[in-house]
Write a structure and sequence with these properties.
Elements (H helix, E strand, L loop, with lengths): L8 E2 L7 E2 L9 H24 L7 H15 L13 H22 L5 H8 L6 H14 L5 H25 L4 H23 L7 H29 L6 H18 L5 H18 L8
Antiparallel strand pairs: 1-2
Helix pairs in contact: 1-4, 1-8, 1-9, 2-3, 2-7, 2-8, 3-6, 3-7, 4-5, 4-9, 5-10, 7-8, 9-10
Length: 290
């Protein structure tokens, strides 16, 4: 019996798998639980990155979070299944584009951008550059919580996520989320290791930094990506972005609560517009009768 929540796939005679984006799927209680887990872990990641870079160079973050994400996923049942060698090049690209590079760009950005603004911008991913401009422009103009360089880093990171999502989609139709994500985060660990190991020399290993790195890696880069892979496989790429609509709320709340960050009213309005616009893009398409 076919799962009514699964994105549809076609299997041509040559054995390759083609996928169709399915935006007609409603979210059930299980999908909402996945979305909630992702929103909480990804929303808190911006505060955790801010804690880490107080005691470590930004180049340490991608290595640290990838390593602990790899360790966490290694113990997930079924994650160590074999991968076809033909897919190794695509996996290598995913390790770079989907994880290692954006994992570096976010801490670089948060050196000059408040964690709450970074969280807000992450929610702009489904609606593109207009949403990013609505959130970023007031903060850059004010000059207190963001600058142009940091916003560029964040924009590039979001672009990496968008490209990686499309590269990953065909593999999601073949492998389980645990199997795929373990390989990708392992490659991210390998790719980020040279800079990360060098960064250890300039790192102060405080309790806060260590705890934030373990939490960010195991949950934010391990289980959260596993949840995302599961949601992506069940609902397709369009509706799998629903958790990112709520990530700004979590990130903003934590930034204000723990970092005493000041949020401009125009940025809040921009965030609400982004969430509303993203919700509109995710609504199920009405069936067309012949």
């Amino acid at each position: 019996m076919k799962n009514s929540h699964s994105a549809s796939t076609d299997k041509p005679a040559n054995g390759t798998i083609k996928t169709r984006d399915d935006t007609n799927l409603q979210f059930g209680w299980f999908e909402w639980l996945l979305a909630l887990g992702m929103a909480l872990t990804w929303g808190s990641s911006f505060l955790l990155i801010d804690i880490i870079i107080r005691d470590a160079p930004a180049t340490f973050v991608p290595f640290g979070r990838s390593f602990f994400g790899m360790v966490a996923l290694f113990f997930v049942p079924g994650s160590r299944q074999k991968i076809d060698r033909r897919h190794q090049p695509r996996l290598l690209i995913l390790g770079l584009i989907w994880m290692a590079l954006p994992f570096l760009l976010f801490p670089l950005a948060e050196q000059t951008v408040a964690s709450s603004i970074a969280g807000m911008m992450n929610g702009a991913l489904p609606v593109g550059f207009i949403g990013i401009f609505l959130i970023a422009a007031p903060s850059v103009r004010d000059g207190g919580s963001a600058d142009v360089k940091g916003i560029v880093y964040l924009t590039l990171a979001l672009l990496c996520y968008a490209v990686g999502l499309n590269i990953a989609r065909p593999l999601q139709a073949i492998y389980s989320p645990a199997t795929l994500m373990l390989r990708v985060v392992a490659l991210s660990t390998l790719l980020s290791a040279p800079l990360g190991i060098v960064a250890l020399r300039s790192t102060t290993f405080s309790i806060g930094m260590i705890g934030a790195t373990v939490f960010l890696g195991a949950l934010g880069s391990g289980f959260a990506f596993l949840l995302f892979g599961t949601l992506l496989k069940r609902t397709g790429p369009v509706r799998s972005m629903i958790p990112t609509y709520f990530t700004p709320i979590v990130g903003t709340f934590l930034g204000v609560l723990f970092n005493d960050e000041k949020i401009l009213m125009l940025s809040l309005v921009g965030m609400l517009i982004v969430i509303f616009g993203a919700w509109l893009t995710s609504r199920p398409e009405k069936a067309i009768t012949q």
